[in-house]
Amino acid sequence: MSRQPISGDVLHNQSSGSKRALFKSMGYTDYDLDRPIIGIANAWSSTNPGHFNLNTIAEMVRRGISQGGGTPVEFGVIAPCDGMCSGTEGMKYNLPAREIIADSIENMARLNHFDGLVLLGSCDKIVPAMMMAAARLDIPTILVNGGPMMGGVQFDGRSSDITSIGEALGMLQKGKITEEEFKDMENGVALTCGSCSFMGTANTMSCLAEAIGLSLPGSAMIPAVYGKRFQVAEESGRRIVGMVEEGLNARKIINKNSIENAMRFGLSIGGSTNMALHMPAIAYEADVPYTLEDMGKLAKETPLLARIYPQVPENVFDFYKAGGVMAVMKHLVPVMHTDAMTCTGKTWGEILEKEAPIENDLIHSIPNAWSPLNSLGVLHGNLAPKGAITKPSAIDPSMWHFSGKAQCYNSEEEALAALEAGKITEGTVVVVRYEGPRGGPGMREMVKILKRLYGYGLNKSTAVVTDGRFSGTNNGCFAGHISPEASAGGPLGLVQDGDVITIDVQQGLLQLEVSDEELKKRSDAFVPLKKEVPAGYLRIYSRSVESADTGAIIPNR
């Protein structure tokens, strides 16, 4: 096999002896070093179940790389878990970790002159960070996720998952279930390793990695405990060597057309609203202009083709059995860019041409769509001049238009305390501000307040608006990602208790029912709250990050 242009230039010249010696000290041979050097970015961790199986998957990837004629070189990547830090100060570090992961992969790939990369990750910020790194580096890259976990015990008419605990806590506090029943839930909601079994950000972004063409077709939703998961890992190892030989770099896969394909797919399955943060960030790294307005336009054109929890009781394992990503992509052929390239070396048109259409109780075709409204609604109005995000598919139709009186809180903890004290009642719009990328800092998920409202039976009579974000499992009436955020002087900081706020999902409206004159008066006197930020990375992040409507990017151009 001929030497490759990146590692070959570094390892095979007169001054490369010391570099080769460093490899040989670890047992590598001249035979190994004459082959393409493939980096494996492994986010294995025993701190969360989504990455617990990645060491075994990495072993299969290494085997595949060797079979394909390459030499695997593995390194570690941090892997924070939303579930571990949800509703705590730790959540402030989760979105910022996306930048650390992307930066660290870039550093390792450039420093070591890898010919190609295999990215191993499964969870919320890790998969989008890895896709950002792939787009930034523009070398042959393939992504292998660890797969979702199986559903848990039955609860509230469905297979439970980790978020059921939050709902059960609200029921426990209201006396609807016992302490023993609550403990049984804790022991039964997560029965295997893998990414959590709902269509939250982790599984949404793993699906989008497949839809964008960076993962092998049909691979994203294979359960973590299936043997097929390991077979795909081995196949991906073989394929990355082929990509290196073909010069199939990441930006030949990640471009405007493929980003639009992936976004349309995510909308059609009711994916997490965090798509609105991650896809613009990935596009930015690929040097592709992609805005909130682009997403809003696509959202209006894309119907809901698959329903998965939190829209309905069926979870991602049910989605996998029903046909998964490939079945939905087949239905999207008339409206997608079929000439978009994939990591296989084939276009989506070539791949899907051989797929038979599948329609069933979970997946529908476009003419028979579940709903004209999907998982992303872009809202504008005087409360969100640069836009806000909602999730129509997770909102009961009776709540698509909602007006109520504001009760304002400067953190999720304050809102939770008010709820537990009985201060939040029907007809309330719960305003949770100073939780944006800069002001939080870190843009925490407002998962606890929405789950607790559900448990209190208030999810169909109250709303939440915030400059924070949401978990993919949330349901109820909500609007987040409000831009500009309160700490940047956005109008969310001007809202006062008792003000009327209107959310109109179908009209794309988020309006504070206060006159322009009154808003100007408030604005002239407004001084945003400045939270104390501990020294370290979080303080650096808060000084550098841009607003949610840009994808909360840290500019590097």
What descriptors fit this protein?
4-stranded parallel sheet, alpha/beta, 14 strands, Rossmann fold, 557 residues
Structural class: alpha/beta
Helix content: 25-40%
* CATH class value of the largest domain: Alpha Beta
Q: What strand line-up does the widest sheet have? A: 12-11-10-9-13-14
C-alpha Rg (nearest Å) = 23 Å
In one word, what is the shape? globular
Helix segment count? 21
Number of domains: 4
Q: What does the largest sheet look like? A: 6 strands, mixed
Unreliable segments of 5+ consecutive residues: none
CATH architecture of the largest domain: 3-Layer(aba) Sandwich
CATH topology of the largest domain: Rossmann fold
In angstroms, what separates the terminal alpha carbons? 37 Å
The tally of strands reads 14
Could you characterize what this model shows?
- The protein is an alpha/beta fold and about 550 residues long.
- The protein folds into four domains: about 1-35, no CATH class; about 35-150 and about 190-350, Rossmann fold (3-Layer(aba) Sandwich), CATH 3.40.50; about 155-190, no CATH class; about 375-550, Glucose Oxidase, domain 1.
- Helix content is about 40%, strand content about 10%.
- The chain has 21 helices and 14 strands.
- The protein has helices spanning about 5-10, 15-25, 30-35, 55-70, 80-85, 95-110, 125-135, 165-175, 180-190, 200-210, 225-245, 255-270, 275-285, 290-300, 315-320, 325-330, 350, 410-420, 445-455, 515-525, 535-545, and strands spanning about 35-40, 70-75, 115-120, 140-145, 155, 160, 375-380, 385-390, 400-410, 430, 465, 475-480, 500-505, 510.
- The strands form four sheets. Strands 12-11-10-9-13-14 form a six-stranded mixed beta sheet.
- Strand 3 (about 115-120), helix 7 and strand 4 form a beta-alpha-beta unit.
- Helix 10 crosses helix 12 and helix 12 runs antiparallel to helix 13.
- The chain is globular, with a radius of gyration of 23 Å.
- The two termini are about 35 Å apart.
